[in-house]
Design a protein that fits this description.
homodimer, mainly alpha, Arc Repressor Mutant, subunit A, 65% helix, DNA-binding
Chain lengths: 143, 143
Amino acid sequence: MAAQPERDLVAGVIQLANLLTRRLAPVFEKARVTPQQWAILSVLDQSGGPMSLAAVARSMMVSKQNMTGMMARLEQLGFAERADDPEDLRSSRVILTRRGRATIEKLRPAYEEWRSALGADLSERDLAAAAKTIEQLIAKLAD
Amino acid sequence: MAAQPERDLVAGVIQLANLLTRRLAPVFEKARVTPQQWAILSVLDQSGGPMSLAAVARSMMVSKQNMTGMMARLEQLGFAERADDPEDLRSSRVILTRRGRATIEKLRPAYEEWRSALGADLSERDLAAAAKTIEQLIAKLAD
DNA sequence: CTAAGACAGTCAATGTATTGACCAATGGCA
DNA sequence: TGCCATTGGTCAATACATTGACTGTCTTAG
């Protein structure tokens, strides 16, 4: 019965995060999009209008430096575009290209399917409870 | 009251993992050790004897290629050593150096303190339940 | 006993993620 | 008005993490 040497909660979260991205990657592979790129496209898609780079970074809780790089890749791949913000000369306005929107709309069902398969044979209640605890930990650690 | 735009469980786990490593890093900073390096030292410390590189990789659920690189850094920093395994010419035997063992013993209390502060003002029961659900997800996703 | 497959380790390429340092623009406050 | 802290964005350095491709050793089936 194993008795796995008792994985620490911290180690567990990190390992689970790695596993999730590892297993999620093939879902988007046909569109040549990585899970993180998918996440950015999702944020942009659900945001109505253009967003600043910093706003996207905050919403995903990554550093703006990281977002600079990811956005550069996304732009080079033709999924998103940056334009100057006339109201704030420091800022950029990031929007999805038509191709970006088409890609995310095509991939969303695949993601949903994968996502619900993930929760199968686990209790809905347990998942919701875990999600809530995770939210609390995030809130506690976030600045 | 927020009503955070409802974070997906998957996104939550990934963001939490990033936050955890980000907040954990300063705990080990004085010893110039990263959280992942700490994790490897921990595994080696608790393993009794020497381990193969692949065994460490499996125990942390990372690829052996990644472990190659991390181990190279650890060796260069003087925390671990590799020797040929006389029983299997493919394999290496990795052990902690005296410095590695001293470092982990010095850092463990700091980690424990950080770790218990993390769980403060959260319910023990909720944390345990979340840990269990995380284990189930890991088991489901692991090969 | 030999050929096929599995496994240990490495290298290279790419993507993710951090800190630190920096510049330009903004906003508040004296 | 003018200073100064904050914020938006970038660059560089480093670490983590994956896949793919490869060498060499072991194991096992025929």
